[in-house]
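hey
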């Protein structure tokens, strides 16, 4: 168990010590921003309270060094198992106070003792969000291969095996206190004609019907679509249209999950969000960023404006929806803990900016067809530097004013590198 590490969360004295020299500047900046926002009729304390209550889940695999299909360059002190991953996630939460939950991935995180995993989560100050099933690769000891698909496979025995794995994930989720399962499949085709498009979708629906039919009351199933990769010609759950068709057929326990990187280039993702909200089927969102495709870069690193526009839709519908938020990215050249802390803060930043939108004024300009002032209303919120709000929200909850600086000063990476043996580089993969 995680007796191996003293969680940074338990050492709040260290974080306070790191914050002390930065406190006066932060307070000045916060007070100044508070004055400016009050002239716009905005109470800064309301925004700060909302930001403080906002959380985004960390995927357990995110704390390992990622890779591409060409290579993976391991970093020092990579987590060896779920207990190491939870210790790393605990550091991210202790310093940012923005990531109170983790999203595990099975079978990668299946130790056979789920109670110990839940206890280790609590020990590191973490709860559990949606669990993720994995039928996109073959796991040790697995009887039948997923090379040609899983839930939509032509062989009923393979489909049954994939269904059974998802039901096992639901069981593990319940053991962790999680109430949701995210299903993303790698099923698809690399060649035109390889697969019967309609029959593959029907087989997927039949398999998912078994899974959704077996989950307990109050449990939700999220369908995650992805346009390409690992299948490069077509995937079975290709886009939000396929995802919505499936979710509608599967009934009220099934909803759609949107991953920012899983669309065709230039797709207007905020419109996808708005449409799924309209139909009551948006239940989850995965954050990352990209320039060309499903690049899995750090949230807000490439196109922070798009992140803001997505949050503009989410905040607009906050009285109707409460989606599960997760970071889903691959850290190939940075320390994953630093990337995840920075990304969680960027997600919070977009959320805070969206909270600043004057929605009454915006609706007025929209109704009057005043394109310029409607656009400027959004820009005004987006161009406000909400950094002081984020810093104050963090520090009030015991987090660090400058999380990356405090993390480096803690020497955490060096300590875990000494006790976790280096892993081989090997091939690619998102693990
Ligand atoms: Mn995802």
């Amino acid at each position: 168990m995680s007796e191996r590490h003293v969680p940074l969360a338990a050492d709040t004295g260290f974080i306070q010590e790191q914050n002390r020299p930065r406190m006066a500047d932060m307070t000045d900046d916060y007070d100044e921003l508070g004055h400016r926002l009050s002239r716009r009729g905005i109470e800064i304390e309301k925004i700060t309270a909302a930001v403080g209550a906002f959380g985004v889940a960390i995927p357990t695999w995110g704390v390992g060094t990622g890779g591409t299909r060409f290579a993976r360059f391991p970093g020092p002190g990579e987590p060896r198992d779920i207990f190491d991953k939870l210790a790393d996630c605990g550091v991210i939460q202790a310093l940012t106070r923005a990531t109170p939950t983790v999203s595990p991935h099975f079978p990668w995180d299946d130790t056979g003792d789920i109670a110990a995993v839940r206890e280790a989560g609590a020990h590191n100050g973490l709860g559990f969000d949606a669990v993720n099933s994995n039928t996109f690769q073959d796991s040790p000891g697995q009887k039948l291969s997923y090379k040609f698909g899983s839930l939509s496979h032509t062989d009923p025995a393979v489909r049954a095996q994939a269904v059974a794995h998802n039901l096992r994930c639901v069981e593990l989720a319940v053991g962790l206190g999680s109430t949701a399962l995210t299903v993303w499949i790698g099923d698809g085709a690399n060649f035109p004609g390889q697969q019967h498009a309609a029959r593959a979708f029907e087989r997927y629906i039949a398999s998912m019907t078994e899974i959704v039919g077996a989950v307990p009351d109050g449990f939700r199933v999220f369908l995650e679509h992805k346009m390409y990769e690992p299948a490069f010609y077509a995937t079975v759950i290709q886009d939000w249209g396929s995802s919505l068709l499936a979710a509608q057929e599967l009934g009220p326990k099934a909803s759609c999950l949107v991953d920012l990187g899983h669309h065709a280039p230039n797709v207007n993702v905020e419109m996808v969000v708005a449409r799924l909200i309209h139909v009551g089927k948006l239940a989850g969102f995965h954050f990352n960023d990209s320039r060309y495709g499903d690049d899995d870069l750090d949230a807000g690193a490439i196109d922070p404006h798009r992140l803001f526009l997505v949050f503009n839709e989410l905040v607009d519908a906050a009285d109707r929806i409460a989606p599960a938020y997760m970071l889903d990215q691959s850290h190939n050249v940075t320390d994953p803990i630093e990337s995840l802390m920075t990304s969680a803060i960027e997600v919070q930043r977009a959320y805070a900016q969206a909270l600043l939108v004057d929605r009454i004024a915006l609706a007025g300009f929209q109704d009057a067809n005043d394109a310029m002032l409607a656009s400027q209303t959004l820009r005004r919120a987006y161009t406000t530097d909400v950094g002081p709000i984020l810093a104050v929200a963090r520090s009030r909850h015991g987090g660090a004013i400058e999380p990356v600086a405090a993390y480096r000063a803690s020497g955490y990476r060096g300590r875990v590198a000494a006790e976790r043996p280096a892993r081989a580089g090997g091939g690619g993969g998102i693990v």
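The first strand starts at residue 58 and ends at 59. Residues 224, 259, 286, 328 surround manganese (II) ion (CB under 6 Å).
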